[in-house]
Automatic annotation (TrEMBL):
Compositional bias annotation for Low complexity: 215-233
Protein name, per record: Uncharacterized protein
Annotated region (Disordered), positions in chain: 1-32, 208-233
Originating species: Botrytis elliptica
Amino acid sequence: MYGARTSSRHFRPNPRYPRDTRARLRRPQWHGKGYREGGDKLFFQLHRSCSYGRGFSRYFESYETANMHDLLGGLENEVSRDYKLPENLHFEFFLRRTQIIGEDALVGSVFDGGETVYAKAFDDEGIQFVFCSGPFGDVWQAKERRGRRVSQSRNPKNFNSQFVIYLSSPGLNRSDTTLSMISDLSPPGFNESDIGLPRVSEFLHSDSNRSDFTLPGSSNPLPPNNSSTQLQN
């Protein structure tokens, strides 16, 4: 695992991507920076940022002599195994906040192993979506987040269904999955006033007063106060 041979090739850094300032270790760690398997295969983390929450990562391997077109196609195929995108969404991949594009540059000019690539889902307007799994099926929901990728500000009060994409089976109507109001589930002739709790005064005798009641084990310091009884001098 340790002490694997590093790449014998020297690549000119691609100016599009920020340089990785981490130093290579003399004994590169497994799947880390500078590690090569077979002399030309490197590994990095592919993070599924399109998943709801913090997402998750898996290793992805690529040859350092492949071009960025091949790398981008491999990334899309790998993420497509985990997520099914609607027609109006597409994947984008980022390295150090820089979007990866297909070009003739070699992978070795961008990657040295041990990096993290972030996979995200966007629509044509640049709104980011995340995958959510709920009781009524799988949903792609717009992600509220500050940044340049959000093309317009949205108030939660004005949030409508165009920012939620349902992945349902054929023949399933979204209106069938809506929850009915409690009043709609009530039997005929049901009145909400029938379940109201009676007030405490209804439990008391007409001639009784609250001061006549004492807690068990305690004495009542006040005498009964009956409005019908009058003190005579």
